[in-house]
Amino acid sequence: MMVERRVMRILVFCLLAAHSACCLGQGANQVVSSTFDSPPSDLKVVSKQQYLAEIQQLQALVASCKAKADACDAGKVGDDVTVASGTLPGDFRFDVRRGWLRNALNDAKSKGEQERAESMAKASDRLDADVQEAAASAQSATIATGKLARAKADAILSRGEFRTVQPEGWLDRESGLVELWLSTLIDSFFSRLPHSSLTAPLIEWGLLVAAAVALIVWAWRVTQQQRVELSVPDADRQMVWQKESDDWARLAEARAAAEDWREAVHCLYWAAIVMLEGRRMWRPNRARTPREYLPLLEAGSPRQRALGGLTRLFERIWYGLRPAARRDFEQAQALLDELKAA
Question: Is the same domain home to 14 and 102?
């Protein structure tokens, strides 16, 4: 796994370097074009190699003119050209004008041998200078491209994501070893499987069947738990609810002994609610408001009248924040006794 991480890092770095080199090459071409480009013209475009070949031919023409006046033919100079290093916009390019050489050849026809030789020597020197200038221009473009590429790479490497690299810690090494062990174990397992077109479908369907069986077993266990819960006898269930109701009643008496009449009435109300729930007058739901319990009882029944009186007393003291006294507690206790009798 450690080896794979290193390989991935090297690949990411190579991709970034390739992208940077591409961008840098474009940037360098733009700089060179701003330095060496001439305005667009209608001249014939030639490459640097063609340009150097033409200079060699012109050197031969100058040498022939120097030796013999009849060879000074200005028509062999050719047309003016534009030298370009490529066909993309912004590539290295410049215009070459040969009017001076045509004039020099025409003048050399009427001059003496010595003057013609001096004139052609100057023309040859100028052609040599053109060759040197072309080489220097290409070298300058190459240097500029390299500098821009280096600057671009430095700018990329100075970003924050390249400054977060930390040495590998003990936990990283140990987790890498565990991942490598698991990967080796899985590879060893699958390498021992028969190489068949049915292997992958069998594994896939096997996992799906195992998941379905696990789901069925879980649903069966939940159903069995519900059956056990429903199988509790009604008498035992009622005893549990009655015990909770009695606990509320004893707590009410304890609060009354402390003359906390408001809390005592509150405990008696819940003793009544729990008792009726134990008798299955409704399904337990603690989200109901006190008034919502009343319609669940038979209209006009003694239970509904007793619970209605207890509810109004409880709401007046608990929610209405009215002061409570002993007579309120005694009234609530009497209503609870009526509910027990009903």
Answer: yes
